Amino acid sequence: xxxxxxxxxxxxxxxxxxxxxxxxxxxxxxxxxxxxxxxxxxxxxxxxxxxxxxxxxxxxxxxxxxxxxxxxxxxxxxxxxxxxxxxxxxxxxxxxxxxxxxxxxxxxxxxxxxxxxxxxxxxxxxxxxxxxxxxxxxxxxxxxxxxxxxxxxxxxxxxxxxxxxxxxxxxxxxxxxxxxxxxxxxxxxxxxxxxxxxxxxxxxxxxxxxxxxxxxxxxxxxxxxxxxxxxxxxxxxxxxxxxxxxxxxxxxxxxxxxxxxxxxxxxxxxxxxxxxxxxxxxxxxxxxxxxxxxxxxxxxxxxxxxxxxxxxxxxxxxxxxxxxxxxxxxxxxxxxxxxxxxxxxxxxxxxxxxxxxxxxxxxxxxxxxxxxxxxxxxxxxxxxxxxxxxxxxxxxxxxxxxxxxxxxxxxxxxxxxxxxxxxxxxxxxxxxxxxxxxxxxxxxxxxxxxxxxxxxxxxxxxxxxxxxxxxxxxxxxxxxxxxxxxxxxxxxxxxxxxxxxxxxxxxxxxxxxxxxxxxxxxxxxxxxxxxxxxxxxxxxxxxxxxxxxxxxxxxxxxxxxxxxxxxxxxxxxxxxxxxxxxxxxxxxxxxxxxxxxxxxxxxxxxxxxxxxxxxxxxxxxxxxxxxxxxxxxxxxxxxxxxxxxxxxxxxxxxxxxxxxxxxxxxxxxxxxxxxxxxxxxxxxxxxxxxxxxxxxxxxxxxxxxxxxxxxxxxxxxxxxxxxxxxxxxxxxxxxxxxxxxxxxxxxxxxxxxxxxxxxxxxxxxxxxxxxxxxxxxxxxxxxxxxxxxxxxxxxxxxxxxxxxxxxxxxxxxxxxxxxxxxxxxxxxxxxxxxxxxxxxxxxxxxxxxxxxxxxxxxxxxxxxxxxxxxxxxxxxxxxxxxxxxxxxxx
Length: 890
Prior knowledge:
Elements: H1 4-7, E1 15-16, H2 24-42, E2 58-62, H3 69-81, E3 100-106, H4 113-132, H5 137-150, H6 156-163, H7 172-187, H8 198-210, H9 214-219, H10 225-230, H11 235-238, H12 242-250, E4 259-265, H13 276-287, E5 292-297, E6 339-341, H14 347-357, E7 358-360, E8 363-364, H15 368-378, H16 382-397, H17 412-419, H18 424-433, H19 441-448, H20 454-460, E9 465-467, E10 475-477, H21 479-488, H22 498-517, H23 525-541, H24 548-559, H25 582-595, H26 601-613, H27 619-635, H28 639-652, H29 657-670, H30 674-681, H31 690-698, H32 704-720, H33 724-741, H34 743-757, H35 763-776, H36 782-799, H37 804-819, H38 822-835, H39 842-852, H40 868-889
Parallel strand pairs: 2-5, 2-6, 3-4, 4-5
Antiparallel strand pairs: 1-7, 7-8, 9-10
């Protein structure tokens, strides 16, 4: 149908159409269900008067307002009316040999339950009047009797004319009702009675039925006809009359036979707190088992559950097995095999919809760049697309060409549609939940400041809330609605002030902190990261000053060296721009620390310096930034700067002081002062990784047995404290030590290290494990070792980890010494001398000479734990042992 808004948007004609896409799956669901229905009613055991058989004559499509439910029903109606109206992707028709009669009824709110239900009944009968063209005596007599009693002085034809029901077809019904009364009167030989005396005719028919007269039974043979005609003709009786209509439809002659397909739109408007209209409609559906119903609304039907007993006539899985939630699905989305959540359009379908919605000379009127912005902002919601099309036409009418920036926003109409059928408490929870990326009932309730979960429980049943039962927080709000609430909620009567939003953000942040603290460290790593991400974004976006639990969580995050991505979504400032709130600075700090696994350490150091220069961090968080900058400086070979930073943090005496003491011990080792390093290590604790530090000090002495035991102790302690990051580091160091001393066992240790590293994000440790692999294979295929070393050297350079180069060259020196490759060894020693020229890791140059049995070119500055000759003999013996092992293996 042409869009009149587009037609009158300007003097320049625009071709417009109701675009439709991405609903092929829904057509398949509908057609499959309808085919099953047709087979059922054609079966020999089907009986329209059976009130006990479970019903399967309903299909439900539900979804958030604006998702396209009404459009789908209109397209279903058109497709059943005329094959050429069916989208080509929907394929061929259904119900071969059957005459399908689509009847679409919009249940949007009307004046009263009674008038709305009357309209439904009349609409169905009017459709049959046009399609069948003949009276339905028992039902028509009951309906005429009801109308005369409930609408005295208002002829049915006048009501139909005034309300415009079914257009010209509507005028057929009064005549058919009158003909039905006359037919009954004539059959009963009551010539003095005419259509205006329907009550008297009904009384006479009841008497004839009680007396079992054949003519009466031929006209009204349904077993319950007499009881229905005897009942007071009120709304309650009207709701049972469809039983008569089902019987009349079932006895239509072949040339008039039809199968009504009744499409009930906007079903959510029937769900008032007493369910009065819903009860009447459900009764109608139950009593018309030979009609197929398609219901569209915002919420799934709960008829298949036991909780509605007493509110509706027919409830539970025995009555509606196809509507019963499936146990293996989430409770909110498990609507049963006949209930289907209507999903968003894909990005491709959004673009296709916009391209076909408005055209000019056969080409899309909306440019591709504008369509891209609209698509991104819509989150796949069709209503957003339609609102954007309307805005495009409005801008175009002013004479200006619409630009992408004109559509980089949401629409208040989305809010109006979303809030229209929510209670005040539900709206309050909805706004609070819009602050959160995901939530559970507790989180939403606490963010709203409520003491009970009832409103949150009702809200998550709405289709605007998606559910992932396997996520930490199972619920999240539709993206388009969430964006609209947070940016365009300026016109609703109960809209929040800026202070309301700020207070809700504070409540949400506190609730997140409570949930994090409620989970033990053993089970709470995922909770820690999830709470940090949401908490950082809340604090950043709403400029919250109290970062108390976020500070604790930040330290917990860095404690274990796992390094999941932590940057919250949609940063308030771009990469490289200065932070302007404490939460900004904290987010930048954690991002710099975690990203160091993926970028050059020099970039990490610059990031951390920028965070410190902002002066937005608390003293405790500033120490965290200084500590990791000192670590970056150590990795970059800036030993003096690193030592200064570590001493500063250690002197501050905060929670990072033990780690800073470890850094000082490591720096002493790097400088070759092993006695000082060992003395510093003796003061360390589990938190400062005492066993790992001791192992790193012992293995350069050639004391592999003691080093391996220290590293095994460190691994065990990490397992005791459930610290997978530290466990992986200790295991990798153990693999390196084992690779030197026992290559046959080293494969197992390396494999275990890789297993521990697999779920983590520790680039330096992964590279360390690769070096361990080279050491294990030292003395074997020379070409393979050289190629692997070249790749490792490049990876180390890209990562900005020059401290690993001396270790890599030492591994190569071991390989060449075992093979007796003097030229290669000489080249390696030259590279090693260059890598340690600054004074750091010079003990590796000593070890390389020891392994090869070569004299040192100059007196060593290394201070060994044992005398130099003992250390030399250990390393040289390692080479001869490997050579003997390889000879034996041949």
